[in-house]
Amino acid sequence: MITKYFSKVVIKFNPMGKDGKVARVFLSSIPPSMKGSCSIDSQVLLSSSKVEPTIKVTFKDKKTIEADPRNLNVQELGNLFDRHSRQLGLKDSLQA
């Protein structure tokens, strides 16, 4: 997954639910070197919580993409965010 263009990541998940594994794997795929340039906010939800599990990524160009970890697997989630990251990479290479 291309995380170079992430500026903020918000993850809300229930660790005991179906979405828990997807959210944890996604969170672990963000390298520790991103901590200085990317704000990471994670919220663990209880089973009785009314808050919906979500993964929201804000990119450096201020575009926000939100996904539901209950409906996607890790591969699909990575592809969703990589699509916009590739567009930003292409813009960077054209400007250089």
Automatic annotation (TrEMBL):
Belongs to the mitochondrion-specific ribosomal protein mL53 family. It comes from the Eukaryota. It is found in: Mitochondrion. Keywords: Mitochondrion, Ribonucleoprotein, Ribosomal protein. InterPro entries: Ribosomal_mL53 (IPR019716), Ribosomal_mL53_fung (IPR042776). This is Large ribosomal subunit protein mL53. It comes from Saccharomycopsis crataegensis. GO terms for cellular component: mitochondrial large ribosomal subunit. GO terms for molecular function: structural constituent of ribosome.
